[in-house]
């Protein structure tokens, strides 16, 4: 048996979009089950996201602290953002987010991992990059707005973050998945064996 996710799409008898928001929408599909029955499935339609685990020379991860209204918390996170343009190259989007949220650039980029955040209720796919060889970005800082105007920054050692994750002190999925994937990669074939930054991403196809 090969443990690998496979693409499959069951028959949809009908579909509607009862809500359309600024960036996402809600869709209702009538899906045919294997036994022939038809059930309704509601889910959020999402453009996809990128996130950046930026690792400095002192083995610290660059974090931001941001208010997230749906969960009523200020969360420690890694820089991340939406794929606003259909077909947008995820590496370019990740480089933009690292610049806008932290005014940092990186010379070495790898794909750390790809995940579906909540596949039972949302089609969001996230590509988490590993960025190394960090330095301050050129030019003026990006003008923050909304929740980002209150954003804090920190650089935290990887070992400390692992302890915080396992203690339940931090909850952002990209931070948790990214840090644990980093530790797993180090314990496996090493960081240089990670996929290149332009590796194919079937969940969100993109232009080179």
Describe this structure in words.
Residues 44-178 form the Nudix hydrolase domain. This is NUDIX hydrolase. InterPro entries: NUDIX_hydrolase-like_dom_sf (IPR015797), NUDIX_hydrolase_dom (IPR000086). This protein has three helices and eleven strands. The radius of gyration is 19 Å and the shape is globular. A hairpin with a 4-residue loop joins strand 1 and strand 2. The chain has 208 residues and is of the alpha+beta class. A five-stranded mixed beta sheet has the order 7-4-9-8-11. Strands 1-2-3 form a three-stranded antiparallel beta sheet, with no helix packed on it. Strands 6-5-10 form a three-stranded antiparallel beta sheet. It has helices at 90-102, 158-166, 173-187; strands spanning 12-20, 25-32, 38-45, 49-54, 60-68, 73-77, 80-82, 104-116, 125-136, 152-157, 195-196.
């Amino acid at each position: 048996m090969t443990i690998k996710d496979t693409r499959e799409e069951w028959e949809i008898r009908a579909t509607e979009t009862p809500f359309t928001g600024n960036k996402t929408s809600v869709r209702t599909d009538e899906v045919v089950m294997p036994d022939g029955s038809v059930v309704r499935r509601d889910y959020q339609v999402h453009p996809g996201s990128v996130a950046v685990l930026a690792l400095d020379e002192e083995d610290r991860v660059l974090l931001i602290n941001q208010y997230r209204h749906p969960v009523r918390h200020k969360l420690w996170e890694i820089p991340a953002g939406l794929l606003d343009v259909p077909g947008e190259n995820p590496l370019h989007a990740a480089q933009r987010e690292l610049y806008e949220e932290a005014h940092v650039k990186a010379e070495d980029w790898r794909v750390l991992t790809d995940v579906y955040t909540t596949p039972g209720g949302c089609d969001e796919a996230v590509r988490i990059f590993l960025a190394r060889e960090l330095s301050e970005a050129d030019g003026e800082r990006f003008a923050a707005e909304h929740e980002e105007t209150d954003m804090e920054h920190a650089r935290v050692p990887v070992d400390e973050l692992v302890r915080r994750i396992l203690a339940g002190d931090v909850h952002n999925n990209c931070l948790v998945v990214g840090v644990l994937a980093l530790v797993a990669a180090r314990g496996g074939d090493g960081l240089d064996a990670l996929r290149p930054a332009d590796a194919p991403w079937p969940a969100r196809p993109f232009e080179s």
